[in-house]
Write a structure and sequence with these properties.
By secondary structure, the chain is α+β, with helices and mostly antiparallel strands. It has ten helices and 22 strands.
């Protein structure tokens, strides 16, 4: 039987970043338990976009998660020598019509007043940065601090850095049962044997609710399918990460959540509410885009109709894509909390039980700092004030 101080369930980017930070302290024996391979779920199949528009005059949780993660990606590649294809390329967010332009203008002004780094560009200015930009668009929001990286390489690099610092990383270990024991410890049954842990971290992404159920707890995180498509390898033609204001405006006007439905989805059942867009060109030449957010349970089968809607949206921004054939499609499941806020911290109903999840569609870009904040909390015993809005106590309950 393997014994460890801290067991992290889930080998995604948040779990691996938690392990790395804890292992670097050299004060804990840390183990990561992954049912498949590291980066085999959402952390490895996303677009690889990294957010960040600055710390602002009064940094909030979003500032910490985005800018803190940006710095950790930089450290991973520039200071620790892991090639994760990190590039601080900036993002251009397309403005398609006059209502979107008015919204974008006000948004940029408000954010700049709060100390964030955004610019409102004309399409002429956008084309000077992105030559394939559609001149018929109304303009763009430019976020120069945003970045990109390869999601599989980056997530595996966080796991490798954790292992290099002394953590144990176990792959292909499906979880069978969890038993709470005396003095706050846990006994975990897996398909490859048992483990004992003094503390447990749930970092299982969209599968946090089933893990919670093993402990008799209701964790209000649901799986939301995101799907993507890719072209064959092309010469360099897309130099920024690309997105659109369309969904941003819709969700501002119609958040769409209630106690039973997460916010910021593109569909209500099968009915489309808005189009959403994000994409980039990878180092290998593929142009990749995605956007739909559908709550369809644990179904990871791409929807061809949604792919075509997304391709048309992307071609409105970069017209050359209308003539480029689709090469492949895929999908992943993102962990959305029902109230839209992350869950990062201690679950109070159990001893030595923690969670880092609920990062929704930007888990790759926010996961590293989420993991670091949780690791600092576990190590010090003191919850950083910035995690107040992510407190799991607000929504995690015992099952009836």
């Amino acid at each position: 039987m393997t014994e460890t101080d801290i067991l992290i369930i889930g080998g995604g980017i948040a779990g691996c970043a938690t392990a790395w930070t804890l292992a670097e302290r050299r004060a804990h024996d840390v183990t990561v338990l992954e049912r498949g391979e590291i980066a085999s779920e959402a952390s490895g199949v996303n677009a690889g976009s990294i957010g960040g528009i600055g710390w602002g005059h009064m940094p909030n949780l979003e500032s910490h998660l985005t800018m803190g993660s940006l710095e950790l990606f930089k450290q991973l590649q520039l200071d620790h020598g892991y090639d994760v294809e990190f590039r601080q390329c900036g993002t251009l967010q397309a403005i398609h019509d006059d209502p979107q332009y008015a919204f974008a203008r006000d948004h940029v002004l408000q954010q700049r007043e709060r100390g964030y780094t955004l610019e409102l560009l004309s399409s002429h200015e956008a084309r000077s940065l992105e030559p394939e930009w559609n001149p018929a668009l109304c303009g763009a929001i430019y976020a120069p601090l945003r970045a990109q990286a390869d999601p599989q390489k980056a997530t595996r690099a966080f796991a490798a850095a954790a292992a290099r610092s002394g953590a144990h990383v176990f792959e292909h270990r499906p979880l069978l049962a969890i038993h709470a024991q005396g003095a706050g410890g846990y006994r975990i049954e897996t398909a490859a044997g048992e483990l004992r842990a003094g503390a447990l971290v749930i970092a299982a992404g969209a599968w946090c609710a089933p893990i919670g159920a093993l402990l008799g707890m209701h964790i209000p995180i649901v799986p939301v399918r995101g799907q993507m498509w890719a072209t064959a390898a092309l010469p360099p033609r897309v130099f920024h990460t690309i997105s659109s204001v369309e969904s941003m405006l819709h969700w501002h006007d119609t958040p769409g959540n209630d106690d039973q439905t997460p916010p910021h989805l593109t569909h209500a059942g099968t009915r489309r509410l808005t189009r959403h867009l994000y994409g980039r060109q990878r180092r290998n030449g593929e142009v990749i885009f995605g956007g739909d957010r559908q709550w369809v349970g644990f179904d990871k089968q791409p929807d061809p109709a949604g792919i075509e809607v997304n391709r048309a949206h992307a071609a409105e921004v970069l017209p050359f894509l209308s003539a480029v054939p689709l090469q492949r499609t895929w999908a992943g499941l993102m962990p959305f909390s029902l109230d839209g806020a992350p869950l990062i911290g201690k679950i109070p109903q159990r001893d030595n039980l923690y969670i880092v999840s609920g990062l929704a569609s930007s888990g790759f870009g926010r996961g590293p700092m989420a993991g670091k904040l949780l690791a600092d909390y576990i190590h010090s015993g003191h919850c950083p004030p910035v995690l107040a809005e992510a407190d799991p106590a607000r929504c995690v309950t015992d099952m009836a």
